[in-house]
Amino acid sequence: MSLLIERRELLDRFKRGERRALEEVYRHYVPDVAAFLQRGFTFSSGGRPLRFGGYAQPFDLDNALQETFARAFKESARLGFDGLHPYKSYLFAIARNLVLDEFRNREVAMSPFIDQLDSSGPSESGGDGEDAAPSASMATAPSAGVSAEQEFLRNELGKLYAAFVTRLDERDRTFFRHRFEEQRTQVEAGQLSGLSHMQSRTLEKKLRRAFLEFMQSNGYLEAYTATATVKAT
Fold first, then answer.
1. pLDDT score of 12 more than 90
2. Fewest 10 Å CB contacts: which of 51, 98, 117, 169?
3. How many domains does the chain have?
4. Distance of CA 45 to CAs 101, 129, 184, Å?
């Protein structure tokens, strides 16, 4: 049973927007939503069967995760949940729509995450994404169907990522790698970098903003703003 179906008092407090209720719902569902965004799902666009391969990089995953819950916790979305169906499915639908919105708004920048499926072959899932089989993102795992343009873009993004990391000073680079490449928690990354919890939190916000600005200055992620990203975290 869904958490919000089993506990009607929690559902009432959640719909009213009580902070503790929101925090409890977030902690309960964030692992499921993260797993969904990592494994990906199939969809169609312009008559083409496509597959979103999931977010492999912690930076991309965390941004999508926070934006999903930001959308889900808006008053209109909270009140729109009927309390009769599993809330996890409701969150998956929001996460799926987020990915598709990003794909439509910035198709070129999202192309490393999208793989075109052979329309003559079987689909990897029924299309709702919830039971889709795990699949590595094309950003890290090339597939046989990658076009020359996609290969070029992936290489270009990889070079930009490496260039950004190289320009950081030793402390920031160490924290960045522990936090985003090794997928450690903010606290763990801070401890390994000799930082306090407060210093780690401040540095992470600074690095997120700097990375977005760097990518935007090189013609990527133009639809995003550093301010919106910091707010979402």
1. yes
2. 169
3. 2
4. 12, 15, 35
- Indicate if 39 and 95 belong to the same structural domain: yes
184 vs 120, residue with greater confidence: 184
Residues 140 and 195 in one domain: no
The distance between the two most distant Cα atoms of the chain, rounded to a whole number of Å, is 55
pTM, to two decimals: 0.51
More confident site: 171 or 50: 171
8: tokens are 């009607």
**Residue 136 shares a structural domain with residue 227:** no
Q: Which of 20-24, 123-127, 194-198 has the lowest mean pLDDT?
A: 123-127
For range 67-93, the mean pLDDT: 91
Same domain, 15 and 109: yes
Residue 133 and residue 186 in one domain: no
Phi, psi of 185 (to 5 degrees): -70, 165
Grouping H, G, I as helix, E, B as strand and the rest as coil, residue 143 is coil
Compute the distance between CA of residue 208 and CA of residue 187 in angstroms, rounded to an integer. 16
Which domain range does residue 139 map to?
3-144
